[in-house]
Amino acid sequence: MKIGIIQQSCTSDVQANKEKLARNIAEVAAQGAQLVVLQELHNSLYFCQVEDVDNCNLAEPIPGPSTTFYGELARRHGIVLVTSLFERRAAGLYHNTAVVFEKDGSIAGKYRKMHIPDDPAYYEKFYFTPGDLGFQPIDTSVGRLGVQVCWDQWYPEGARLMALRGAEMLIYPTAIGFESSDTPEEQERQREAWTTVQRGHAVANGLPVITVNRVGHEPDPSGQTRGITFWGSSFVAGPQGEFLYRASQDREENTVIDIDLKRSENVRRWWPFLRDRRIEEFGGLTKRFLDDTAI
Questions:
Q1: Number of H helices, E strands in the chain
Q2: For labeling, which of 8, 122, 225, 230 is most exposed (least CB within 10 Å)?
């Protein structure tokens, strides 16, 4: 299968961001992409650097204007499209939601981000309610997609549950970067840790991983920090964690990568991790922490 990934920078102009994405989607579709993956919250700047209720004006219902826009792009180009939207479920109730469109423009399914960070410059708990749809893959004409969002990518449990429900690949729209006060050495440790943990999901589950990050610097509107420099580095890894593609840290890129889905079947036969899992001993995973009183 041909996978199109779009790593781009964003501005405060939502319409301009969407038009830019439309051009980029057309470019990778013209190169034969059958599945196209966008980055997290691609319609706008990453607004979670500050806690501001006015940013809730960016949220939309699903279905809504953005699903109409991206559904039409999927239909026009005959692609399966993975998007990432700020969902307004009700007044005061919002989600960070990935929406997947089928080739005919219909909504194939959605995933609401389960793990919500609350860290300096990533104040997502102010905006987003944790997802309530579980780790359920989305069936499409190009396969069963295990879609999660950004902070979810650090948790092996979500990847495993997607695999156990038959996902054929793991997909992570992402917005992550450096806070500029970190040393270059610390920045590189963070970027490599982020890459390594996701390659581990590929290995542990015998599945390809597709991760698409944003790129470029976005200032902190409050001026309390020097903003976030998103580190790009979008990548596609095969089922043994091997890099099939890794984008630059500082440039926008539209790329099409070939994935051999039959390889996952072979890798799982060589390394039958699912066969050898000691599921009867895993009950402790449902606990927050295991201390002496929990034994």
A1: 5, 17
A2: 225
Taking the C-alpha atoms of residue 214 and residue 233, their distance in angstroms, rounded to an integer, is 9
Paired tokens of 155: 């948790």
Known catalytic membership, residue 56 = no
Non-local (6+) Cβ contacts of 181 within 8 A are 225, 226
Residue 110 annotated in active site: no
Beta strands in 126-281 (DSSP E): 138-140, 143-147, 169-174, 177-179, 209-213, 215-218, 228-231, 235-237, 243-246, 253-258
Q: Residue 36 has which token pair?
A: 């196209």
Q: Helix/strand/coil (H, E, C) string of 149-164?
A: CHHHHHCHHHHHHHHH
Structure-block tokens of residue 149: 């969002």
Quote the CA–CA distance of 119 and 51 in Å, as a whole number.
Answer: 12
- Domain residue extents for the chain: 2-294
Residue 97: both structure tokens together? 């939601």
- Cα–Cα distance measured from residue 194 to residue 211, given in angstroms and rounded to the nearest whole number: 10
Q: Does domain 2-294 have CATH number 3.40.50.300?
A: no
| pLDDT tens digits for range 62-98 | 999 999 999 999 999 999 999 999 999 999 999 999 9
Catalytic pick among 20, 60, 113, 168: 113
Predicted structure pTM score? 0.96
For residue 258, give both structure tokens: 């070939």
Bridge partner list, 87:
60, 95
- Distances in whole angstroms, Cα of residue 261 to Cα of each of 28, 96, 140, 162, 271: 20, 29, 15, 16, 16
Catalytic residue, chosen from 40, 102, 179, 218, is: 40
Per-residue pLDDT tens over the stretch 33-59: 999 999 999 999 999 999 999 999 999
Report which secondary-structure segment, H or E, holds 83.
Answer: strand 80-90
Res 19 pLDDT > 70: yes
150 is catalytic: yes
